[in-house]
Design brief:
It is a single chain. With 210 residues, the protein is of the alpha/beta class. Helix content is 47%, strand content 16%. It has one domain: P-loop containing nucleotide triphosphate hydrolases (Rossmann fold). A hairpin with a 5-residue loop joins strand 5 and strand 6. The structure holds adenosine monophosphate.
Length: 210
């Protein structure tokens, strides 16, 4: 199953994708996580994208497309994947269509007010990238990742000013993808407001797994 997760920053795409890996038995490919690893490793890609990401702006289309094209050429993605955070522009979607045919696009529907609350409480594992929330998805041990024990941190782009910029960028550049994929008959909307369990249930239903 080749899936795209679409939705505003903070809609919970990363959290549900981590569950989707078990449900669909496919890898989770998060362009944001790939960029963050490159920043941590201080690789040439990381140095190129660091300032843009921390300001809440998009990396240029060519760089994002190159990254995903390389990742989707790897063996483990041949039977499927969950693409989280890509495409983010119509240009990226058109490029993706040239090298991979997706089966479904899951649109995580959520109001801005809920997004702000979620992003400001989000914590991410420095080591494995797992997502937690100080209220809605608390780690068992404060400041430590349940998956690998790594230290949890607040993303620079989860600061208030960067959050506003990301929501603006989402409205301008990514929302048009909803109609783009709806017209192709690929889009399924899910209500992303509830608990993790209820969103997982909606996700399974959207895929006809329940
Ligand atoms: P995310 O973890 O998906 O919220 O992504 C974090 C940041 O990485 C975004 O705010 C962008 O700066 C960058 N990014 C991730 N995916 C893309 C993409 N497909 N195109 C451009 N920039 C991206």
């Amino acid at each position: 199953m080749k899936l795209i997760f679409l939705g505003s920053p903070g809609a919970g795409k990363g959290t549900i994708a981590a569950k989707g890996v078990e449900i669909c038995k496919v890898p989770h490919i998060s362009t944001g996580a790939l960029f963050r690893s490159a920043i941590t490793a201080m690789s040439p890609l990381g140095c190129q994208v660091k300032a843009l990401i921390e300001a809440g702006r998009l990396v240029d289309d060519e760089t994002a497309i190159f990254l995903v094209k390389e990742r989707l050429a790897q063996e483990d993605t041949q039977s499927g994947y969950i693409l989280d955070g890509f495409p983010r522009t119509i240009f990226q979607a058109e490029a993706l269509a040239q090298f991979s045919a997706v089966d479904k696009v899951v649109n995580f529907d959520i109001p801005d007010a809920v997004v702000l609350e979620r992003l400001s409480g989000r914590r991410v594992c420095r080591k494995c990238g797992a997502n937690f929330h100080i209220i809605f998805n608390k780690p068992k041990q404060e400041q430590h990742c349940d998956v690998c024990g790594g230290e949890l941190f607040i993303r620079k782009d989860d600061q208030e000013e960067a959050i506003r910029e990301r929501l603006e960028v989402y409205r301008e550049q990514t929302i048009p993808l909803i109609e783009y994929y709806r017209k192709q008959g690929l889009l399924v909307d899910i209500d992303a407001q509830g608990s993790v369990d209820s969103v997982v249930a909606s996700f399974k239903q959207a895929l006809g797994m329940q």
